[in-house]
């Protein structure tokens, strides 16, 4: 029977590759391990003057919220900004923006130039909060439910059909 | 799909912050702890650049993670705790040395398993070779004749 | 014009290849010699067309004809001529064309040198080879045509990735491709043998030089790649167990196993079905590497720009070629019964052990490379299989291999004497143990693995030396030793040199891994840092302008033992087309090891962050690889091996025995 071993191994490998290629998967994307876990504790200065600090308590509102990590130096963030405006305006989803490794002035400039979709903001200058959230680059967007539990993470910019195909269905499931 | 890949390339290409943090890495004052930290860095995979350890990478995030590793080691965390800290945030993906658990038993056992499979292929069971029946008298005579003929040919 | 000529040549080549892949089989089935002989004409025609297409593309690159998309996206007028030429194979489409060129070249060589092979067998081999050409040509024409036009033509091209603009990398890919494609001949011979239903010692005599040639090229390609990584990537790493590196390492291991198992087939008419399987597997692993690099299934630093359509195409091709030949193997393998026998203690047995461990290592590298995909496919999360796993596998599997490698050549063919082998094994073992112990003692016991690696390397080197000494009876009859020495055949020298090369590499790996000294610091001009007893004085930086880059060059004067050794000049380059930053390490090799300096970022006030290293015995890696290559070439040049075709009729009949 040994003579069939190579054929079996080759068939299994071809099937594996085929499955991997047909699945809608990006080999560079690292799955978030925070799904299903409560948001990590943090406390960040706001971008707005005189606003209170942003903490994890701000995310437990009884309603789903989106947490978006962005930066003014990040080109794809500009690409997805329009969709964030749509989410906040049209869909009335509170979006919380965390400026990742971005100086306050530049982040403010970015928002005044492109419009501000964020209900609240935080300034993560040294990127430590980003690391606590398992962020590997910007933009990344987290969907947090009313209890403050992370339900979904969108990796990379929300562009193309990823708003309709990925993010909105996840939102609907929560509501 | 292709557009998506292009976007991804954009993300990866532009994820470097515009300002540079202090260039100099600050080694830990205690050489033993520093050595321990460096060993750990070699085991942690850089998230931005593919297939490098954070020790080898110039990426911003790798630098931050190096700082975290040093910080945890300085606080007296054991190597296992430091690893757990990072796995907690980025998953098993960050460990260049896959942890031994149910999904990796096969991987770690593969050298021993593969030796058996390969040996089975090398020593493929041979069909029982029919043992030659002794020659009959007629055949014996024929053989003698053939041999005689051949010796004759070679001489000529 | 050249573009259309190239395109047309490819279409003609496809037609010739289609004829060559089918008609000879019909001829073989009907016993029609004329139809079978068409295989020879077909491969020559394919080769001519491939030359024509490849020349057309090269011409377009040299003349910077940006109306060809491929040239516009991969070349630039300011690029030095060497890189305009290497740009031809430095991209996906051009590299495939290069594959086709080599596939057809080797096919033509088999036809030319193989006129003494029985017609039916030769026509089968050429038909299988033509089938591979068909697959690659269809891949090129349908998904990756290098001759597509761009209208209007841009005035300037995008340029080549600066990391690839390097002499090491200009020749690394073609060497690898020559190796991969060399294995295609072994594959074609194996499939033809399966179709004919017979493997003879003569078959092995034919396959072995091709396996050896492919192995020499793979060795060279891999060594160049790792050398490039060592001086270009800026932290002195030379092997990362990256999927693409593994993809070149697996065929290398399989080819190494194949060229050893072919000896057993040739000498003892045993191990036949296994050798056939190895020949198929070796080339399949080359195809797998191509698939991994170009499909985007795995992450790699070296990957080409990926495109799902291409991935699906190669996967289909892979499935047909590899799956088909494995099915053929499953069907025909029972026919390959061994006729020769050999004792448990014999050179053959040692070669079997060698085969088991080399192949197992290849299999484990495959498992490790693809394991993250498996885990993900079964929904068990994402994991990384990095260097620690492969190093563990290497330690587990290479240690017994190296032990066997030391003993094997000392054993006689067929039935060896343990006692004779012991006379040599024991002294080698003693030397190795002493070396390992001394190392542990000198480094106060901190390096068990290093001591084992060091001991194994010394064991291998000592046994190679003692084997030669015993061959020339250096101790028994020293008077005549020189005469015997001069009589050692090239094949024997080849074996000894290649085995010693492995020992040298192992020595370099263990010593450089364990004892590299590194210093990371910020230096101002005039500062001196001492690394491993060498004083590196930072003299400052100067701007440099190259043909298509600008750079900051640092100057480090290195003193050791009271005298000035050298000035290291590492660079931090910024290329203009495309814009990219690269580091060029400053390296000065000493006998004891390499002085290695990298310049980083400016730290203000004229200070720069630098990395300084002393890497002991690192040159042994490339020296060892060179020894292996020279060993392979020596063995290839041995007259007895040179396509040793029989002249007498009887032996020719031997290979056709099973044909009827």
Written description of the protein model:
The complex is a heterotrimer of chains A (175), B (156) and C (660). Chain A is elongated. The mean pLDDT of chain A is 90. Chain A has 175 residues and is of the alpha/beta class. Chain A has helices at 5-22, 75-89, 104-114, 128-132, 162-174, and strands at residues 43-44, 54-55, 65-70, 95-100, 120-124, 140-144, 150-155. Chain A has a single domain (30-174), classed as Glutaredoxin (3-Layer(aba) Sandwich), CATH 3.40.30. With 156 residues, chain B is mainly α. Chain B is 58% helix and 0% strand. Chain B contains 6 helices and no strands. Among the domains of chain C are: 1-163, Four Helix Bundle (Hemerythrin (Met), subunit A) (Up-down Bundle), CATH 1.20.120; 517-617. Chain C has 19 helices and 10 strands. In chain C, the strands form 2 sheets. In chain C, strands 2, 3, 4, 5, 6 and 7 form a 6-stranded antiparallel β-sheet that branches. A 4-stranded antiparallel β-sheet of chain C has the order 1-10-9-8, covered by helices on one side. In chain C, a hairpin with a 2-residue loop joins strand 2 and strand 3 (534-545). Classes of the chains: A alpha/beta (175), B mainly alpha (156), C alpha+beta (660). Chain A binds chain B through residues 2-3, 5-6, 26, 28, 30-34, 71, 73-76, 79, 101-103, 106, 126-128, 131-134, 136-139, 156-157, 159-160, and chain B through 3-5, 7-8, 10-12, 14-19, 47-48, 50, 60-61, 64-65, 68, 87-91, 93, 117, 120-121, 124-125.
């Amino acid at each position: 029977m040994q003579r069939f071993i190579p054929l079996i191994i080759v068939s299994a490998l071809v099937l594996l590759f085929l499955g991997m290629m047909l699945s809608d998967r990006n080999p560079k994307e690292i799955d978030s391990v925070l799904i299903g876990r409560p948001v990590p504790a943090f406390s960040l200065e706001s971008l707005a003057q005189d606003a209170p600090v942003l903490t994890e308590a701000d995310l437990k509102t009884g309603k789903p919220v989106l947490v978006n990590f962005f930066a003014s130096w990040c080109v794809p963030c500009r690409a997805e900004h329009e969709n964030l405006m749509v989410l906040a305006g049209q869909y009335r989803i509170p979006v919380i923006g965390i400026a990742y490794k971005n100086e306050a002035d530049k982040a403010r400039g970015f928002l005044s130039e492109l419009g501000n979709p964020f209900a609240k903001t935080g300034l993560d200058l040294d990127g430590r909060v980003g690391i606590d959230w398992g962020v590997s680059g910007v933009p990344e967007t987290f969907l947090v439910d009313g209890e403050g539990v992370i339900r979904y993470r969108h990796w990379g910019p929300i562009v193309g059909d990823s708003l309709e195909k990925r993010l909105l269905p996840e939102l609907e499931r929560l509501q | 799909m292709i557009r998506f890949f292009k976007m991804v390339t954009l993300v990866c290409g532009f994820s470097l912050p515009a300002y540079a943090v202090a260039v100099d890495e600050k080694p830990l004052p205690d050489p033993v702890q520093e050595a321990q930290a460096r060993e750990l860095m070699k085991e942690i995979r850089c998230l931005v650049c593919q297939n490098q350890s954070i020790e080898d990478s110039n990426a911003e995030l790798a630098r931050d993670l190096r700082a975290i590793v040093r910080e945890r080691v300085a606080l007296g965390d054991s190597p296992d705790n430091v690893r757990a800290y990072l796995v907690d945030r980025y998953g098993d993906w960050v460990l260049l040395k896959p942890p031994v658990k149910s999904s990796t038993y096969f991987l770690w056992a593969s050298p021993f398993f593969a030796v058996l499979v390969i040996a089975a292929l090398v020593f493929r069971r041979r069909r029982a070779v029919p043992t030659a029946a002794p020659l009959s008298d007629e055949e014996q005579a024929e053989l003698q004749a053939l041999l005689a003929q051949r010796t004759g040919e070679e001489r000529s | 014009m050249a573009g259309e000529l190239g395109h047309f040549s490819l279409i003609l080549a496809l037609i010739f290849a289609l004829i060559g892949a089918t008609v000879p089989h019909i001829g073989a089935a009907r016993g029609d010699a004329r139809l079978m002989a068409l295989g020879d004409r077909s491969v020559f025609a394919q080769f001519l067309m491939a030359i024509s297409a490849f020349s057309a593309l090269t011409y377009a690159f040299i003349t910077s004809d940006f109306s060809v998309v491929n040239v516009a996206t991969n070349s630039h007028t300011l690029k030095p001529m060497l890189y305009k030429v290497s740009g031809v194979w430095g991209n996906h489409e051009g590299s495939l064309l290069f594959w086709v060129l080599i596939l057809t070249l080797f096919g033509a060589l088999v036809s030319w040198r193989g006129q003494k092979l029985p017609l039916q067998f030769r026509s089968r081999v050429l038909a299988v080879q033509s089938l591979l050409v068909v697959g690659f040509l269809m891949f090129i024409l349908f998904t990756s045509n290098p001759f597509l036009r761009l209208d209007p033509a841009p005035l300037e091209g995008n340029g080549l990735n600066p990391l690839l603009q390097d002499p090491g990398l200009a020749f690394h890919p073609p060497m690898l491709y020559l190796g991969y494609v060399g294995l295609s001949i072994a594959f074609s011979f194996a499939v033809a043998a399966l179709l004919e239903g017979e493997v003879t010692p003569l078959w092995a005599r034919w396959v072995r030089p091709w396996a050896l040639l492919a192995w020499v090229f793979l060795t060279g390609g891999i060594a160049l790649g790792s050398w490039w990584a060592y001086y270009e990537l800026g932290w002195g790493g030379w092997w990362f167990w990256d999927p693409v590196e593994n993809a070149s390492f697996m065929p290398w291991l399989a080819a190494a196993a194949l060229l050893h198992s072919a000896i057993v087939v040739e000498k003892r008419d045993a191990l036949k079905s296994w050798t056939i399987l190895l020949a198929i597997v070796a080339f399949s692993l080359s195809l797998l590497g191509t698939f991994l690099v170009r499909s985007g299934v795995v992450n790699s630093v070296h990957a080409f720009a990926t495109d799902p359509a291409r991935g699906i195409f190669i996967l289909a091709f892979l499935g047909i070629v590899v799956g088909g030949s494995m099915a053929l193997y499953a069907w025909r393998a029972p026919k390959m019964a061994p006729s020769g026998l050999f004792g448990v203690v014999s050179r053959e047995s040692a070669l079997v052990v060698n085969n088991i461990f080399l192949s197992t290592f290849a299999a484990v590298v495959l498992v490790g490379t693809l394991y993250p995909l498996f885990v993900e496919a079964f929904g068990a999360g994402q994991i990384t299989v990095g260097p620690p796993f492969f190093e563990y596998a290497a330690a587990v599997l290479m240690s017994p291999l190296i032990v066997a490698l030391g003993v094997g050549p000392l054993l006689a063919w067929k039935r060896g004497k343990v006692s004779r082998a012991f006379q040599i094994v024991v002294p080698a073992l003693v030397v190795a143990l002493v070396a390992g112990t001394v190392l542990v003692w000198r480094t106060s016991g901190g390096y068990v693995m290093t001591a084992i690696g060091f001991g194994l390397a010394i064991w291998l080197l000592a046994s190679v030396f003692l084997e030669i000494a015993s061959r020339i009876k250096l101790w028994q009859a020293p008077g005549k030793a020189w005469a015997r020495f001069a009589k050692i055949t090239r094949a024997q020298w080849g074996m000894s040199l290649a085995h010693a090369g492995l020992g040298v590499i192992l020595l370099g790996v263990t010593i450089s891994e364990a004892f590299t000294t590194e210093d990371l610091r910020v230096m101002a001009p005039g500062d001196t840092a001492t690394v491993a007893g060498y004083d590196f004085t930072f003299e400052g930086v100067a701007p440099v302008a190259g043909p298509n880059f600008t750079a900051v060059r640092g100057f480090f004067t290195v003193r050791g033992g009271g005298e000035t050794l050298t000035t290291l000049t590492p660079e931090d380059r910024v290329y203009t087309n495309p814009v990219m930053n690269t580091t060029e390490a400053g390296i000065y090799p000493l006998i004891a090891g390499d002085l290695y300096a990298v310049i980083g970022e400016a730290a203000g006030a004229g200070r720069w962050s630098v990395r300084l290293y002393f890497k002991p015995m690192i040159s042994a890696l490339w020296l060892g690889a060179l020894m292996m290559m020279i060993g392979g070439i020596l063995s290839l040049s041995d007259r007895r091996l040179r396509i040793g075709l029989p002249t007498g009729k009887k032996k020719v009949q031997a290979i056709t025995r099973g044909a009827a």
